C-alpha cells in the first residue's frame, strides 16, 4: 500500500527506529474478526436452512464475500509472519536475504488491496438483494433506489479492483521497488515503470465506498419511517439495522488511516493500521449483513410450544401476517414485520381472527408454501 521515497527520506524515517512490534496486535484483531465472521455466516446459513432458503442470491453473495474476506485476513497473517507491524530497520536486520521479507510484506499489501474490493462489493450486493426481498413489498419506491445502488456498488467493486491491480505497471514493480530503497539490486530492471499516487489509487475508492455505505444505511430508515407497528417491535428492527453504523464508522476510520499514512521506507510499520481496519471492516461487515437474515432463529426461539416434525418431515412454524390483503407464495418474501412478530401477537391474532399459518412439507418443490386454515363455526 505504501509507496517509495528518496534515500534521504528513508534515512530520516529510520533514524529513530525502535523494537516496537504491533504484530501480536494485528494477529489478535485479525483472528478475532475472522471468528466473528465465521460464526455470523454459520448462524445465517442455519437460520435460512430452517425455511429451506440456503441457496438464495443474497446467501450466495455473502458466502463469496466471506471467501474473499478470509483470504484477505490470511494475507494479513502471512504479512505479519514476515515482519508486518515492525519497523523496517528490524525487518531488514533480521532478514537472512534482505530485503526479501520487506518485498514480501509489500506484495501481501498489494494483494490485500485487490481482494478486499470484491469482498466489500459482494457484501453490499448481498445486503441489497436482501433489502429487495424484504422491503420492496412494503415501500415500492424503494425498489428503484435499491437497484440503482446495486449497479453503483457493482461498478465500484469492478472499477476499484482494476485500479488496485494497475497501481503500478507492470504490477510486480509495486514490491520490487523496495530493493533500491534499501540499497539492494532488484532481481529485474526497474526501468520504464509507473505507479499511481497513494491517494489516487487507494483513497478515492475508499471514499466512494463510504458514500455507498451511507446510502445503504438510509434505505432501512426510509422503510421504517413508513411502517406502522408496535413501538417495541420497531425498536428491535431499528436496532438490528443500526448495527450497520458500526461498520460505516470502521470504514471512516480506515479511510482516515489510508489518507494520513506516512509514505516512505518504513512500510511495514506505516501500513499496520490500514491492514487492521481493513480486516475488521470486512469481517464485521459480513456479521452485520447476516444478523437480519438470521431472524428465523428468533421466531423459532420465541415459539412457546414448537410443533413436532410432521409425518412428511416438515417443521410446523406459526407465522402470522400483518395484513390479510394478499398471500405470499414464498417464505423468501417475508417482511421485517413478519420476522419480528412476537408469540403474544400470534396468540392475539389467533383469538381474534381464528386463523393460523403453517408451513406444510414441500420436499419435491423445495419451497415453502403457506396454507391458511380458517375455522368456520356453525350456529346451533
How would you characterize this protein structure?
It is a single chain. The strands form two sheets. The protein has a two-stranded antiparallel ribbon with strand order 1-2. The protein has a two-stranded antiparallel ribbon with strand order 3-4. Helix content is 64%, strand content 3%. It has helices at 7-14, 23-50, 57-81, 88-93, 100-135, 142-165, 173-176, 178-181, 198-226, 231-242, 244-260, 267-270, 272-293, 295-302, 336-339, 343-353; strands at 168-169, 194-195, 355-358, 371-374. The chain is mostly helical. It folds into two domains: 7-296, Rhopdopsin 7-helix transmembrane proteins, CATH 1.20.1070; 303-374, no CATH class. Residues 1-5 and 305-380 have low confidence and may be disordered. It holds the Pfam family Fung_rhodopsin. Residues 332-380 are annotated as: Disordered.
Count, helices: 16
With strands numbered from the N-terminus, the spatial order across the biggest sheet is 1-2
**Amino- and carboxy-terminal Cα gap:** 82 Å
Proper CATH architecture of the largest domain = Up-down Bundle
Give start-end ranges of low-pLDDT stretches. Answer: 1-5, 305-380
The biggest beta sheet is recorded as: 2 strands, antiparallel
Could you name the CATH topology of the largest domain?
Rhopdopsin 7-helix transmembrane proteins
Cα-atom Rg, whole angstroms?
Answer: 26 Å
Helical content, roughly?
55-70%
- Overall morphology: elongated
Number of strand segments: 4
Average of pLDDT: 77
CATH class annotation of the largest domain: Mainly Alpha
Order of helices and strands: HHHHHHEHHEHHHHHHHHEE
Domain count: the total is: 2
Fraction in beta strands? under 5%
Structural class of the secondary elements? mainly alpha
Subcellular location: Membrane
Pfam families: Fung_rhodopsin
Domain Rhodopsin: 43-299
Transmembrane segments: 26-47, 59-82, 102-123, 144-165, 206-228, 235-256, 276-298
Amino acid at each position: 500500500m505504501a509507496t517509495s521515497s528518496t534515500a534521504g527520506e528513508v534515512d530520516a524515517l529510520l533514524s529513530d527506529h525502535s523494537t516496537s512490534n504491533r504484530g501480536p496486535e494485528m494477529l489478535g484483531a485479525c483472528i478475532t474478526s475472522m471468528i466473528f465472521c465465521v460464526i455470523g455466516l454459520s448462524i445465517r446459513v442455519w437460520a435460512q436452512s430452517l425455511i429451506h432458503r440456503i441457496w438464495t442470491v443474497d446467501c450466495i453473495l455473502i458466502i463469496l464475500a466471506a471467501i474473499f474476506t478470509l483470504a484477505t485476513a490470511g494475507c494479513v497473517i502471512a504479512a505479519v509472519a514476515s515482519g508486518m507491524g515492525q519497523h523496517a530497520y528490524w525487518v531488514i536486520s533480521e532478514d537472512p536475504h534482505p530485503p526479501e521479507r520487506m518485498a514480501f510484506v509489500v506484495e501481501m499489501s498489494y494483494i490485500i488491496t485487490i481482494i478486499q474490493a470484491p469482498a466489500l462489493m459482494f457484501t453490499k450486493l448481498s445486503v441489497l438483494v436482501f433489502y429487495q426481498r424484504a422491503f420492496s413489498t412494503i415501500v415500492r419506491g424503494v425498489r428503484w433506489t435499491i437497484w440503482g445502488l446495486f449497479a453503483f456498488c457493482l461498478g465500484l467493486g469492478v472499477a476499484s479492483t482494476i485500479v488496485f491491480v494497475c497501481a503500478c505497471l507492470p504490477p510486480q514493480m509495486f514490491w520490487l521497488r523496495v530493493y533500491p530503497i534499501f540499497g539492494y539490486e532488484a532481481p529485474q530492471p526497474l526501468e520504464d515503470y509507473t505507479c499511481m499516487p497513494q491517494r489516487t489509487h487507494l483513497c478515492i475508492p475508499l471514499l466512494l465506498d463510504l458514500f455507498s455505505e451511507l446510502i445503504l444505511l438510509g434505505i432501512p430508515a426510509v422503510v421504517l419511517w413508513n411502517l406502522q407497528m408496535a413501538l417495541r417491535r420497531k425498536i428491535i428492527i431499528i436496532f438490528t439495522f443500526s448495527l450497520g453504523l458500526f461498520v460505516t464508522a470502521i470504514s471512516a476510520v480506515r479511510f482516515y488511516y489510508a489518507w494520513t499514512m506516512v509514505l516512505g521506507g518504513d512500510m511495514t510499520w506505516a501500513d499496520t493500521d490500514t491492514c487492521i481496519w481493513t480486516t475488521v471492516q470486512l469481517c464485521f461487515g459480513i456479521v452485520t449483513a447476516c444478523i437480519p437474515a438470521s431472524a428465523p432463529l428468533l421466531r423459532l426461539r420465541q415459539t412457546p410450544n414448537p410443533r413436532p416434525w410432521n409425518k412428511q418431515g416438515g417443521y410446523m412454524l406459526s407465522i402470522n401476517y400483518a395484513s390479510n390483503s394478499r398471500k405470499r407464495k414464498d417464505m423468501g418474501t417475508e417482511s421485517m414485520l413478519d420476522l419480528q412478530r412476537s408469540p403474544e401477537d400470534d396468540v392475539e391474532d389467533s383469538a381474534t381472527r381464528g386463523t393460523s399459518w403453517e408451513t406444510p412439507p414441500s420436499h419435491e418443490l423445495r419451497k415453502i408454501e403457506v396454507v391458511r386454515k380458517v375455522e368456520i363455526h356453525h350456529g346451533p
